[in-house]
Amino acid sequence: MAMAVQKLFPNSKVTIGPWIDNGFYYDFDMEPLTDKDLKKIKKEMDRIIRRNLPLVREEVSREEAQKRIEALNEPYKLEILESIKEEPITIYHIGEEWWDLCAGPHVESTGKIDRKAVELESVAGAYWRGDEKNQMLQRIYGTAWENEDQLKAYIHFKEEAKRRDHRRLGQDLDLFSIQEDAGGGLVFWHPKGAIIRHILEDSWKQIHLQYGYDLLYTPHVAKADLWRISGHIDFYKENMYNQMDVEDEMYQLRPMNCPYHILVYKRKLHSYRDFPIRVAELGTVYRYELSGSLHGLFRVRGFTQDDAHIFCLEDQIQDEIRGVLDLTEQILGQFGFRYYEINLSTRPEKSVGSDDIWEKATVALKNALDDKGWEYKVDEGGGAFYGPKIDLKIEDALGRKWQCSTVQVDFNLPARFDITYVDSNSEKKRPIMIHRAILGSLERFFGVLIEHYAGDFPLWLAPTQARILPVTDNELQYCNEVAAELKSRGFRVEVCHGERLPKLIRNAETQKVPLMAVVGPKEVQARTLTIRSRHNGEIGAMHVDEFITRLQLAVANKSSL
């Protein structure tokens, strides 16, 4: 592709062109490209493929590589050359017409590539080295497969992902918005989205109480000194908002909840008999993100974490981790997530804490995973500097992986805040602290749910569980009576009228309402409802009491009617 670009646009300068998931991109310093330009580039690529030019690997010295790059006047390649530490330097030639720095390997010749399995997808702006102070480049995204059928399957996958895009569905279903008048990355939950959030939060709280957690609510701001003690100002400042002056004291919007939970722990002296202590909070945090990196609900500036911290003894780590894994499975299982990708990350080169406690904690995490029977990969040296961790990704309906849950042992904050307990010998000791989140953030998880379900939420989670549709306004009074009865039982229903019945049904289906209850003169006379399922079609007529009973059973079992 880069060869094709430079043939068509001789003044363009090449930079980097790595492979990424499902494709590749290449950045060029050149005038802005259009979709029409992409078509020209693809045609030129096809010509290069048809010519069946050989790809030849050449090893050269650093000095020779520099000489050749300077001859071509490619300043970005010079910078890339400086970053390459290995020698010799490898170059790949396409015929005798074009070459590039590359580690390889490549196919033998351009003719080995199926031109019908290659597509240029889009063009976007990107700063050199990702730094907004550098030159803005033109980034061309493309994808390449072994054959045309694989490309068609990928295109279908992309179309399905586009259909499920939470930003579009959020607008179509009136779930949430980002109001630019208020600022980018700040989420407004609309009534329908808010009721789903309420269900998520209520379920989350109930399950945590069952698992022995105490719930907390803590402030959104705190004195800046708190964040100095925690180390956030030293190590996390670029992700924090500017401090505010309150009566000559500096305050800070919280980027994390951990220090607050530690302060709650420190409010009194603890004995070894008190452990484990589990506290949980749906805590809203604020983190600075560049406007260009914001993305719907997936990348925002204010979000609510399902945060929890466990304070325990060393010999309790394994049982507590196992309890977190059980809790994670129960919560994620409600939404149909059954397949996980799990990584256990171990001690990095730079870390705090003794060898003994690192070994005990890592073994405890491994044993908890083994006891759970979950497969996992070990990321040697990939842990945080303050402790080993488990990261869990869920798999959605399209097979995409989403990072959600994390469990991290922390040897750093307990020392920074000097938290202690009194052991059986009346001596002060340091407890173990475990961070954990299951959903990650409510905003991001909601975005994942929208795309997982394609906005078609299951009955128990749907913002509107049923719409009552009168054939004419003559049945409206009965419909309102039924709606009032259903609402009194805790169901989310609404009456829609004023249109012809076929349109009322289409509107309900467009809004992805799981159930419709059609009411005509016969239903009023018999005190019944004719139930229609969005997925199963006509269910038939039933008395209101029967409908309520079946609805209660379906919601309790998180199933369809």
From TrEMBL:
Domain Aminoacyl-transfer RNA synthetases class-II family profile, first and last residues per copy: 165-458
Keyword line: Aminoacyl-tRNA synthetase, ATP-binding, Ligase, Metal-binding, Nucleotide-binding, Protein biosynthesis, Zinc
UniProt-recorded name of the protein: threonine--tRNA ligase
Source species of the chain: Panicum hallii var. hallii
InterPro entries per UniProt: aa-tRNA-synt_IIb, aa-tRNA-synth_II, aa-tRNA-synth_II/BPL/LPL, Anticodon-bd, Anticodon-bd_dom_sf, Thr-tRNA-ligase_IIa, Thr/Ala-tRNA-synth_IIc_edit, ThrRS_anticodon
Keyword Nucleotide-binding: yes
Reaction catalysis annotation: tRNA(Thr) + L-threonine + ATP = L-threonyl-tRNA(Thr) + AMP + diphosphate + H(+)
EC number assigned by the record: 6.1.1.3
Pfam families for the chain: HGTP_anticodon, tRNA-synt_2b, tRNA_SAD
Annotated Gene Ontology cellular component terms: chloroplast stroma
UniProt-listed SMART domains: tRNA_SAD
Organism superkingdom: Eukaryota
GO function term, MF aspect, one: metal ion binding
CDD domains for this protein: ThrRS_anticodon, ThrRS_core
Family: Belongs to the class-II aminoacyl-tRNA synthetase family.
Gene Ontology terms describing biological process: threonyl-tRNA aminoacylation
